[in-house]
Amino acid sequence: xxxxxxxxxxxxxxxxxxxxxxxxxxxxxxxxxxxxxxxxxxxxxxxxxxxxxxxxxxxxxxxxxxxxxxxxxxxxxxxxxxxxxxxxxxxxxxxxxxxxxxxxxxxxxxxxxxxxxxxxxxxxxxx
Length: 127
Hints:
By secondary structure, this protein is an alpha+beta fold. The protein has 2 helices and 9 strands; from the N terminus they run βαβββββαβββ.
């Protein structure tokens, strides 16, 4: 069995789509739009692993994103080495994204950083 995709609601669908394309090499399908509900979605594919579905609709609740909450907390991307973690983290920092932690070696031995992506969604970058 494999994880096919993870879905997340966002307010600004195009900004979220562009973020994952620009920094993580995502490839997007064409937007799906359900005119009855107002739902709009994109599926984003990456070199390997699960896809990410980003969705928006006019009747969403947008609650604060406390990092110590139940439910999904972050998305994690493996970029292929410590140097690539450092480079992408610095690129994101230079482009105005907050670096929440790292790059560092975690207590369980991973080399990673964590940034706050669009709309406060946390994204981990690991080797």
